[in-house]
Design goal:
This protein has 4 helices and 14 strands. The protein is mostly beta strands. The chain is globular. Bound molecules: fe (iii) ion. This is High molecular weight rubredoxin.
Length: 240
Amino acid sequence: MSTTGLDLKALRYLTYGLYILTAHDRGKRNGCIVNTVVQVASKPCLVSVSVSKKNLTHDFIKKTGFFAAQVLTKDVPLKLIGIFGFRSGRDYDKFDKVRFRDGVTGCPVVLEHTLASIEVEVEKAIDCSSHTVFIGEVVRAENLKKGEPLTYAYYHQVKGGKTGKNAPGYKASIAKDNSETEKGDKKMKKYVCSVCGYVYDPDKGDPDSGVKPGTPFEKLPDGWVCPVCGAAKAEFEPQD
Ligand code: FE
């Protein structure tokens, strides 16, 4: 088929939620951030998820045949997304840092900033090149708290969130923001995290970490770390 007229920017108009996807394997727990949880049938109640083959969570799901998806709240701090979204569970235990309990499938259920949890027993795994789509029956669904769910669009536009390299929409969603921030007659530069792509905007500061709006990058305390991936201040570069 011809690829003429293939404007990938069209894919940016697809809408998604944002979820912590968890799984387990022989006593180990892991999780990652996905935007690809979809209900695909009602009787029986079937749910699918698309996961990068590079993710450890993918390997756990493939082995055990279970996954759990937790719906994130709109007010989730970027730090929690950073724990699950930009580091590999091969390097460290993500569940050291969050409150959780094990669900009926053995998959961990994160109890911080999550509205609901859906546990699934996998029936089919469809190979989709870089990703696998797992489809299965919901064996437990529960509401954890009341509130509004986080959407992918809100995460990008309002919270300044970035797309992980293993997300299916990674290339389509990269957008460079070259602007500098004006403060009086001085320009305060934005700085980019070289690990995850988070942009420190002095106008916005980093309120989740106690940094007030209007704080230039140079005035950030030495112990300040990237709110998304935990990288040190030295990992940041001025934005061109
Ligand atoms: Fe970062």
